[in-house]
Amino acid sequence: MYSVWTFPFLFSILQNTDIGNSKSEVIFRGFNVKARHFFADILILLIAAGAVFFAGWVSFWIKPGTCAVMTSKTGGIYPEAVEYGKFLWRWERLLPTNTTLAVYPLQGLSFNHQVSGLLPSADVYSRQIDGGADFSYNFDFRVTVSAEPSEILRLVTEGKITNSEEGLDAYLEMASEKAAQLVSESLLEYTDSTFTAPCVLSGREVPSLGSDFHGLKVQSVEIKTLKRPDRDAYEAAKKIYKAYTEELSSAVKDRAKSQAAYMAESDSNMRQLEQFAELLEKYPRMSELSKSGDLAQVIGQLKSIH
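Predicted structure:
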């Protein structure tokens, strides 16, 4: 093994010997050319390896606060989301125009929703209270929703969103609208009259929502305006109407029984008259007897006929 000082030492010896300066210069130049070629080849290999490495380093192109779904012509959708700070190298990226990266934001998006309406049978129940009652409700929400990288990948794979940021935004807005509806249903059952707006709901106040909604994370639900009906008055009116309908139903049943008995009696009399008319048509001699009104003679005539 030669040290780094070997070749300069040999070169100085050659200069002081009888071989002459010409031979020493040839040897040194030959060595210098080979060294240059060697280091040039190493440098080219390093550049090529670096280019290949960076070309296949997928996560290098992902910015903080985002993730991506990689789709390739050779393999379709890659089964893992590409995340910032999580190393991922794929050979598919080495083929020109083979892959596409759809980038999605991970920060929460906020959407405004209004939910309004009437409690069930509100118009009917309000008439049971003197002066009427207002059983309408109105809520203005601002819902902030976000999606995890694994959930974004699932949505793309199942075709529920397109390979674009706009597709995710539309899906998050739809989910936030459903979340607002669930919150409004919980608020209508929430009887605490001290609850006012504006405020931000917690998981304890909206247990039906929780922290996870269809694979999406509902970060916050802000109530900007709040109008709720008087639940106690609504329940009281509901009981009054129920008692009224029960009483009415009982009266209708009694009336129906009386009407049915009357109709049955009328039907029996009608059948008797029809039978008697058939007898008069069949036995004309009974016509004179029926005019006399003597029932005994009519019965006797019937017996003689039989």
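Summary: The longest helix spans residues 231-282.
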